[in-house]
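Morning F.,

Quick status update on the modeling queue. The single chain you submitted on Monday has been processed. Sequence for confirmation:
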Amino acid sequence: MQTWVKQGGMKNVPLLLLPTRYRQVVCMSCFARSLDHARQIFSSKTERPLYNGQRIKFEVSGSGSEPESVLWHNFSKAQGVPCRAALSVLAIAGSIVLWGLLFYFPFAIYEAWSYSALGAASDTTTEMIFSMLVVAGNQILYLLCEKASRFICFRFVGHQLTAYIWLYTMALLCNLAMDLVILFYTTQLAMANLGLEITTATFLMGTDEVTTFPMRAKLGARLKSYNFPACFFLPFLFEALFTVVIPYHIYKTLVGSQPIRQRAADGFLMPAPFDMSRYADVVLNMTQATMSLFFSPGYVLPTLGGMLFGHIFVYAWDHYRVLRHVRKFRITSFGTEKAAERMLALPGASLIAGTVLQTFQAQ
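Structure tokens below.
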């Protein structure tokens, strides 16, 4: 709830310049039970103090923000939010480019050379290395997006969480797009070494099925490996193990075996609050699953099966975590819910585009 103190209805008056008793009324209105309660505090019967020879007018407007959802320390930094948001986006984009060029591109070159030399699919070791690269890249982007949402200095927790969801979703989709572009380029080189010249137009139009099918199958297989288990299962398994299960076991053993103060023991064993960042994970998985329609149809069903398995695990883990390892819930607005509903346009658009492409190529 926001309280504005205006001089003659024209401009804001600093709260500290008011008499003490009126400052108490203003502060009390910030923590009022409801907007009507705050308006009742600032009713027309309230005596208006003088400021520079004019009567002060109180106006109350509410946005439904509770004190715990307000980031009070960011109010002094609210002027540069657009600039900090732009810097955050540029930093995340630069990180995606660096990760693709320094880590994924060498791996794609190695895989393309192996494919052109041996003519066989990747072995288990290569697939494990690829999965770990994907998981590591996604975790780095997760940390960067979380830091960026804090760096922007929003005034409310809901706005910060909404920004994180958008940044994380778009960053991982851009990372996936860049990885696919690198894979397309390296696979194109490998096919050229095998005597198959494939251009981008030929691949998209599907005019030569005999020539484009090997590349389409290669990209479809790589996207399936990218999705499952690297995105649909392993991140959530590592989240459960390394953020809750293993730390809780270590702290529980430490508290039970060592003399420790009550406050320190409570701090070690206190669970974290629950947030709504799972929206981004679900929407992202749905979008990546629908992108399999752009390549070989034979990998669509395994991708959807992997997504189903991963989401069953996520549901079971979140159910257990909510009952055993969550301290509290604090949901003060529907901003995050509305943002997630808008993001559902991404998998919907991908599904429609993939269906149209497959229909066009089948004609």
